[in-house]
Design goal:
The structure is a single chain. This protein is an alpha+beta fold. The protein folds into four domains: about 140 residues, Yope Regulator, Chain: A (2-Layer Sandwich); about 100 residues; about 80 residues; about 70 residues. About 60% of the residues lie in helices and about 10% in strands. It is built from 18 helices and ten strands. Strands 1, 2, 3, 4, 5 and 6 form a six-stranded antiparallel sheet that branches. A two-stranded antiparallel ribbon has the order 7-8. Strand 1 and strand 2 form a beta hairpin. The longest helix has 27 residues. The chain is globular and about 80 Å long.
């Protein structure tokens, strides 16, 4: 594998969690003051600031909160809190096998809530006195119901033929977005399989494992799928950590990639949509937890850089960056650093990519995060970003001044061609390409200047 895999821009640029920590602390304070209803209202505002008014009644005592393909119902009375969520309608055939798995989930997947059966309908339920609704307990219960419901309803519909109690409210991706994602999956998977076959021929199965897992993470990052595709990616990631020989894990990973490659665009589109979520299945990031999670790879990559093992450094850092997105709602300042590095390192020789990725990782590990790390500067999206626009204009003015001063000594069609390319890069907002061309132009001008004198 001589070059890194491509970077694909995500469907949604910002991955930052919508949770507001100060409201969570306030909710705990209200609970301590025995203002239980107000504490729950504030907890909802912490989870999603729009949900309380959007999905609750005027009295603030009843809520129907959508999360993916399920709806969580919460009802408050003078003494109790009642929480329930319809799961699925049992199928005519296969219900015994499905109920057997549901019974296992009651023990091994649900915490305080429990599955109950009403006729042919399964639901998850929990209720307790208001005095026992500590915010930490309630948010854990809501997360548990949301994660189990949204994860397993698609799987049980596919596996057992169960039907939904509720048709989720979704907004499908626009057709052009589906086209872009489908083409990106196709090209990325092909490139990954080519790289893995090359590593396998060299019996470098550890590299194959890293590249395959990175691709799983990357598809999740840029496509942000829902439904069964999201479940399948989760399972594929879990399968890569099984206690099996690495070569066997690589074969399983390749088989899943081949399955993705064969998936028709229409099938892929079924799981590409936007949907309201009550709680994220990921955790909110923080600089500290990212640093702790990346400590081992930082040490490994630093040693690899010192030993000139640049391919190892590039592969491992790229893996770790995409893994961070898989498990975290990444805050905007860290997101800016990661995206800038991943974009610049994409489809590059390993030597160049390793340096770019290591510099970004080193910056994060040293806690050097500031407002200058604005991904919009490099993304080509200048609208709504006055700082980036100003910096681009300053760079352009300086380059033009240099060009005017030195071009008088030279002229020539080659210089004009480079200037035209720079203008086009500026119009696209592609600062990285603009600066590369500016450097090339400067070298040619300086060479011509000294040759003419």
């Amino acid at each position: 594998m001589k070059r890194t895999l491509p970077f694909i821009a995500p469907v949604v640029d910002s991955t930052q969690s919508a949770m507001q920590r100060d409201l969570y602390d306030k909710s705990i304070d209200l609970y301590g003051e025995e203002q239980y209803v107000e504490a729950f209202h504030t907890l909802l505002d912490h989870l999603n600031p729009e949900f309380r008014t959007k999905y609750g009644n005027a009295e603030g005592t009843e809520f129907h909160l959508p999360h993916g393909s399920i709806v969580v119902n919460v009802r408050l009375d003078d003494r109790m809190m009642h929480i329930d969520a319809d799961f699925l309608n049992l199928p005519a055939k296969g219900r015994v096998a499905m109920l057997r798995q549901v019974a296992d989930m009651n023990i091994n997947r649900l915490l305080l809530p429990r599955f109950t059966k009403e006729g042919d309908r399964l639901k998850m339920e929990y209720h307790c006195p208001l005095a026992e609704t500590h915010p930490h307990k309630i948010v854990t219960i809501l997360q548990n119901i949301c994660r189990v419901g949204d994860r397993y309803d698609d799987e049980f519909c596919t596996k057992f033929g169960a039907t939904r109690c509720y048709e989720p409210r979704v907004t499908p991706y626009p057709a052009e977005t589906v086209d872009r994602i489908y083409e990106a999956v196709q090209s990325l998977v092909r490139a990954t399989l080519d790289a893995v076959r090359e590593y396998n021929d060299q019996r470098r199965y550890g590299y194959s494992w890293n590249v395959i897992d990175t691709t799983f993470y990357q598809i999740s990052y840029f496509a942000q799928p829902q439904g069964q595709l999201a479940n399948d990616l989760d399972k594929a990631v879990d399968d890569m950590d099984e206690e099996l020989p690495v070569a066997e894990l690589v074969m399983k990973g390749m088989a899943f990639l081949e399955k993705l490659l064969a998936m028709p665009k229409e099938k892929l589109a079924e799981d590409l949509y936007f949907v309201d979520t009550l709680v994220s299945i990921k955790g909110p990031s923080s600089l500290q937890n990212v640093q702790e999670n990346m400590k081992d790879v930082y040490e490994e990559a630093t040693a690899a850089m010192q030993n000139k093992d640049l391919e190892r450094a590039a592969v491992r850092i790229c893996y770790k960056f995409y893994e961070a997105y898989f498990y975290n709602d990444m805050q905007d300042d860290l997101n800016a650093i990661f995206v800038k590095a991943l974009r610049e390192a994409a489809d590059q020789p390993m030597e160049k990519a390793a340096e770019t990725l290591w510099n970004a990782l080193d910056k994060v590990m040293e806690g050097e995060i500031d407002e200058d790390d604005d991904e919009g500067f490099f993304s080509g999206v200048m609208e709504g970003n006055p700082m980036a626009q100003q910096m681009m204009e300053q760079a352009q003015a300086q380059a033009q001044a240099m060009q005017q001063k030195m071009a008088a000594a030279m002229g020539g069609g080659e210089i004009q061609e480079l200037q035209q390319k720079m203008t086009e890069a500026m119009a696209r907002g592609d600062m990285a390409e603009y600066m590369r061309l500016a450097g090339e132009l400067q070298q040619k001008m300086m060479s011509g200047f000294f040759n003419n004198n």
